Amino acid sequence: QVQLVESGGGSVQAGGSLTLSCAASGRIPGASTMAWYRQTPGKQRELVSSVTSGGITDYADSVRDRFTVSRHNGRNTLTLQMDNLRPEDTAVYYCNLIRVVTPRANYWGQGTQVTVSS
To answer: Which long-range contacts (CB under 8 A, 24 or more apart) does 28-32 make?
Structure first.
């Protein structure tokens, strides 16, 4: 079992910055992909950014060049540095971990609210 706890959410004005963190604990697989998703009411949860255990990163086009994702602390801590925030970035941000080897597993945190005002 894996537990994910997000932190760092809050309120910021447009153009500001926030840093989100996700601490993973439990039986964390070495072969895993960690990712940030976000969701607003009425919309499906969307992928924001991801990092494989091999260090390969990916970003949604809407956040590319503004957000930076990283894994550290033995690959069990996920961070998302968010710069030049926009109101449309407002959402609940969720940490996700996928075990990519058999048996596959998918874990989610409880989410942290990010609110960006104009």
So the answer is: 28/2, 28/75, 28/76, 28/97, 29/99, 29/100, 29/101, 29/105, 30/75, 31/99, 31/100, 31/101, 32/75, 32/97, 32/98, 32/99, 32/100
